[in-house]
Design a protein that fits this description.
Chain lengths: 364, 486
């Protein structure tokens, strides 16, 4: 493993932001642009984080890692791997060059999410620059910390609209001794019941998904625990265990190779299948559902909302939304209720009064 | 004052029954403090609403009359989070005590904020499910207060804090709007306001409904007790257990004072001459637990544990925990009063911090018993004092402040799970600089521009910090040099 380069670019980043604030120049914050397909399309002066790199702090026995935003995710994961540890949330990369800051700003979590927590659950603290160019530190490097509002978890998934992330500290966990994946032929309805029944019992579950008539269950833990659980669960062993989950996490599974718009639906894991025409893949034990469909956005969003969930247009594909006038784009994120939208606006103003940080990327 | 009280109570009585609007002194006194009894203040009026609609109407009246509101659940806060205001309404959520729905398939429960923490696990037990965060006060504390403080407990290292174990909140804003934060699944659209509200100490909204996550009850749990002659050995054992890749369900340490007090109180069978004892609990699948418990025992012996004992059955396991959970009341027997601190430190600094604490204890002539969530670095030094002896309370507060500053010095935080409340406002000035505190105030104003929700708690005013800075000049440097002083 090559040593990770160390470079603190804070001063320059802060100067750029202060200048942008003074002149009200909107900024487009990015790292390696591996996830630029995500979110509403934006314009802005480029502010690149790839030179702000390095591991600030990592003591395996503390279970805490702090790294600069431009550090490559693969370098962080390799470092943790060498110490027998890993990120609990199994982050998707969507490109080899994915950075630490982009990972946190997008807030994506992989298949382990329902059983080991989301990205935001691992966040302990951040150092950041707000829209006024002020450098701020929130949270810390310890596992329990309730001093001040939890502004650091707020940054997870905020797409850089509240601050430019400089360093992010997370809790890490030990890597399991053994992982095993079991496959069973099932209908989607059977799979939903099955995945939720397993999750309600003492099983070392670390992923559960459904695609193409098959439910896949991953077990993780000590050798003793995984082998004991595998005996109690029916199904064929799928080898190697990691291949399917890697494809699911990175959207390299054949399901995702399409030009049809891809929707991400967040629902109660036990929700019955929604009656929206299209192709479905279920992850997170049913709580995250991928839908390929050409149906209009409002039909999808109404059905999801009626089931208590929300829908994100994850990839536009060749979306032709009849509901929208020419020149308008379908909003990527689920529209908020009026009072909730008003809180979002006020919070955005609290961090970024001139709206210079990734303006309109989350909500317009 | 009394005129104000009358006008307000008249408005409240338009929709609340007589016994839900308290204005007489003898009725108000029970609300004058929470678990931090050194601070007391009788509120202007106490209201005890029963429905969300009542709360909305109360909020609307308070907003229009510019009357501050302090919410109170079970009143077990140990940082003064529910301390009333002289000119404010104390809003009791005692009647919001129902579990509205248990959904075993989706492993969640929808509860009202006044439901007791332990009552959730009791109600869901028959489904083989439970609510994981277990603050020591769990028999009494309410879930709404747990959310407001982001409460922890002894099982946090493995199962997380309150923020990791809730799925959705309904809050009433100061505008009188009912907002749902989070989704019905594992996330909601937009900013993670669920995380922001958790631990916000009642400053951003009034929590009126909570969806908690339920976990399957582990198949088995086992606990090992180890005694050490030196605190350092115990600290090293903790580090190695974690480094070996084991995440214990609980990993607790008590020093000599705390162990002796707990033993005399509970008779858990703790060795009475040890410098420190460790309790390490493992849970999960039987095969896993039995393999790990012997691995842990080996590590403990390697680090010179003078005695180890694995609980032979559930009765003994409960007894060993009873000593730990009873440590605070046990310490009460050592002195008339105690003052509980709540700093968190990186685990590797444990020995250094404990040695410094014992030096400070000598310097201030006040005994300190240490109870420590060793797994997650959360330290609870209990300063023993006698409030009837002039100056002792003041001295113990000053000593407490020093301990928190020590936690910051080693890279920790002033509060791991108890919250800032009114108690640690001065230390907030040390942990955060002017810009950071200003950002907190900006967040507050985004939700509550007129500062009517629990004002004066959790985040100190810049003036307070400036004044404090003027009193405590550190190494010749004046903190907050950019703030005007008077």
């Amino acid at each position: 493993m090559n040593p990770i380069i160390n470079n603190d670019d804070t001063v320059q980043l802060q100067e750029l932001t202060q200048n942008a604030y003074a002149k009200k120049i909107p900024l487009r914050i990015f790292g390696s642009d591996t996830k630029s397909f995500y979110g509403n399309k934006i314009q802005g002066h480029p502010l690149c984080l790839v030179n702000h790199v390095g591991i600030v702090d990592y003591e395996p026995a503390e279970l805490v890692l702090t790294a600069r935003a431009g550090t490559k995710l693969r370098e962080i994961e390799a470092l943790l791997h060498s110490a027998g540890q890993m990120l609990a949330f199994e982050p998707p990369y969507f490109g080899e060059e994915a950075t630490w800051g982009g990972t946190v700003a997008c807030g994506f979590s992989g298949p382990r999410r329902p059983y080991a927590g989301a990205l935001r659950d691992s966040i302990l603290g951040v150092r950041m620059i707000n829209g006024k160019g002020e450098q701020l530190r929130f949270g810390g490097k310890v596992i329990k910390n309730v001093a001040g509002y939890d502004a650091s978890r707020l940054m997870a998934g905020a797409l850089g609209t509240l601050g430019i992330l400089l360093d992010i500290s997370v809790k890490v966990i030990p890597r399991p001794q053994l992982e095993m994946t079991l496959v069973l032929e099932q209908t989607p309805e059977e799979a939903i019941t099955y995945m939720n029944t397993l999750a309600g019992g003492p099983v070392p579950l670390s992923a559960a998904a459904y695609v193409d008539g098959q439910v896949l269950i991953r077990l993780s833990g000590t050798q003793a625990a995984v082998q004991a659980a595998a005996v109690k669960i029916s199904g064929q062993e799928h080898e190697p265990s990691s291949s399917f989950w890697q494809q699911l996490k990175e959207h390299s599974h054949p399901f995702f190779s399409t030009e049809t718009p891809l929707w991400r639906l967040s629902l109660l894991p036990g929700s019955p299948m929604l009656k929206i025409p299209g192709d479905w893949m279920l992850d997170w034990g049913g709580a995250q559902r991928w839908l390929k469909t050409n149906e209009p956005a409002n039909l999808i969003r109404d059905a999801v909302q009626a089931a208590g969930g929300h829908a994100t247009l994850f990839r536009q594909g060749e979306l032709k939304d009849q509901q929208m006038k020419d020149g308008e784009n379908t909003p990527v994120f689920h529209p908020l209720s009026k009072p909730l939208a008003s809180v979002h606006e006020k919070l955005k103003t609290a961090f970024d009064p001139e709206y210079i940080l990734n303006r309109n990327q989350l909500y317009t | 004052m009394s005129e104000n009280r009358n006008t307000l109570s008249k408005q409240f009585l338009q929709f609340l029954p007589d016994n839900a609007v308290l204005t007489h002194n003898e009725d108000l006194h029970p609300y004058e403090c929470d678990g931090l009894s050194a601070y007391r203040q009788v509120p202007l009026v106490v209201v005890i609403p029963e429905t969300i609609e009542h709360i909305v109407r109360i909020v609307n009246i308070c907003r229009k009359t510019n009357t501050p509101i302090v919410c109170r659940g079970a009143g077990t806060s140990v940082s003064g989070g529910a301390l009333p205001l002289e000119n404010g309404v104390l809003l009791s959520l005692a009647k919001f005590n129902r579990i509205l729905n248990i959904d075993p398939v989706n492993r969640l429960a929808c509860v009202q904020p006044g439901v007791r923490n332990l009552a959730i696990s009791q109600a869901t037990q028959s489904y083989g499910l439970y609510y994981a965060p277990d603050p020591s006060s769990q028999i009494a504390c309410s879930i709404g207060g747990n959310v407001a403080e982001n409460a922890g407990g002894v099982h946090c290292l493995k199962y997380g804090l309150t923020v990791h174990n809730i799925l959705q909140l309904k809050i009433v804003t100061i505008e009188g709007e009912l907002l749902t934060l989070g989704g019905s699944g594992l996330d909601g659209p937009g900013y993670d306001l669920l995380a922001l509200l958790t631990g916000s100490e009642g400053m951003l909204g009034i929590i009126v409904e909570i969806v908690v996550k339920l976990l399957p009850v582990p198949e088995c749990a086992s606990v090992v007790l180890a005694a050490f002659d030196e605190i350092e050995h115990a600290g090293n054992a903790v580090t190695e257990i974690i480094a070996s890749g084991i995440i214990p369900a609980g990993l607790e340490m008590m020093d000599r004072h705390a162990t002796r007090a707990a033993e005399e109180y509970v008779h858990a069978g703790y060795p009475d001459n040890a410098a420190a004892i460790l309790l390490c609990e493992l849970d999960g699948i039987k095969e896993e637990v039995s393999a790990q418990i012997s691995q842990v025992k080996d590590i403990l012996l390697k680090h010179r544990a003078v005695q180890t004992r694995i609980a032979k059955d559930e009765v003994e396991r409960q007894l060993l925990w009873a000593g730990r959970k009873g440590a605070f009341p046990a310490v009460v027997r050592l002195a008339p009063d105690y003052y509980c601190m709540d700093g968190t430190i990186p685990r590797r600094k444990l020995a250094f911090v404990l040695n410094r604490i014992s030096e400070l204890s000598e310097e201030y002539q006040l005994a300190i018993a240490n109870v420590f969530h060793a797994g997650d670095g959360n330290l609870h030094p209990l300063i023993l004092y006698d409030a009837n002896k002039p100056g002792e309370l003041h001295r113990s507060e000053e000593l407490g402040g020093k301990i928190l500053e020590l936690c910051l010095e080693v890279g920790g935080t002033i509060t791991g799970e108890h919250g800032v409340g009114v108690e640690k406002l001065n230390q907030m000035c040390v942990q955060f600089d002017t810009l950071e505190l200003s950002q907190f105030h900006a967040i507050k104003h985004a939700f509550d521009p007129d500062e009517l929700l629990n004002p004066g708690k959790a985040v100190p005013s810049l003036h307070r910090c400036a004044e404090l800075g003027a009193m405590h000049v550190h190494e010749g440097k004046l903190p907050f040099p950019d703030i005007e002083r008077f």
